[in-house]
Design a protein that fits this description.
13-stranded antiparallel sheet, globular
């Protein structure tokens, strides 16, 4: 490569960094917004019920024993909801653990990780991935969590304030619906995102094997692709292997 070509490449890289910084600044400037006021009470509860019915939340609660999905192609999850067991795969790692006590096993390239300290770090990392990625599996479901205050905004928007519990009390979400209860957009005021009031659109809705309806794509600050979603009425399936057998020995 000639010196001139090297300088051109360096200038292009510098320009790309500047453009990325400008885009990030523009996103932050356009996204910042105040939390809108709402009204708690029966109308807010009625809209919440309508929204949950639109995605068949009852099927999630009563007919879905387990679910598998991927997050942006980076993390692959399997959640045995009935037994409270989780498997997370990323890079060369597979980690399986119990949600009750975060105890489990970690594997690298198919071999057990022998060091106790490294295993503990991998368990914590897997749980962090799971908590974030399970939220995006269907953000609406979390309005049923303890300590959530619901308020109606206008006719078709619902504000959910996580007043207690969880790791980030005070986080606020506003769900905008299409009038039939199906969420089209969600605004976020959360501690881990600097852009207050940023909007995620819900796209590519699909119905799972157990009848639950979820968005498979979120257009947010980055695109969040929820892929390979499969929901199980029973796990392990009849005659099938149990991926959590090593935890049950």
């Amino acid at each position: 490569m000639s010196m001139n070509e090297s300088r051109i490449n360096e200038n292009c890289a510098r320009l790309n960094r500047r453009l990325a910084a400008l885009l990030l600044f523009a996103a932050s400037a356009s996204a910042c917004a105040s939390i809108p006021p709402g009204v708690a009470g029966g109308d807010a509860d009625a809209l919440a019920a309508k929204m949950l019915e639109a995605v068949n939340y009852k099927a999630w609660q009563n007919k879905t024993a387990a679910v598998g999905w991927s997050f942006r192609g980076d993390h692959i999850h399997f959640w045995d909801r009935e037994r409270g067991l989780v498997e997370v795969k990323w890079d060369d790692y597979v980690v399986r653990f119990s949600k009750k006590d975060l105890q489990g096993r970690a594997y690298r390239n198919g071999k057990p990780v022998g060091d106790a300290g490294e295993t503990a770090e991998l368990l914590a990392k897997a749980n962090a991935y799971f908590v974030n990625d399970a939220f995006w599996l269907n953000p609406l479901f979390h309005i049923e969590s303890p300590g959530v205050q619901l308020e109606l905004i206008g006719e078709n928007s619902l504000k959910a304030v996580f007043t207690s519990g969880g790791v980030t009390p005070g986080d606020t979400y506003v769900f905008h619906t299409d009038g039939d209860g199906l969420v089209t957009e969600m605004q976020l005021w959360v501690s881990i995102v600097p852009f207050k009031g940023s909007t995620a659109t819900f796209e590519n809705y699909a119905v799972s094997e157990t009848g639950v309806k979820t968005a498979r794509l979120y257009d947010y600050i980055v695109t969040i692709d929820i892929g390979d979603v499969k929901m199980y009425a029973k796990y392990p399936e009849s005659g099938g292997e149990d991926r959590f057998a090593d935890l049950l020995k």
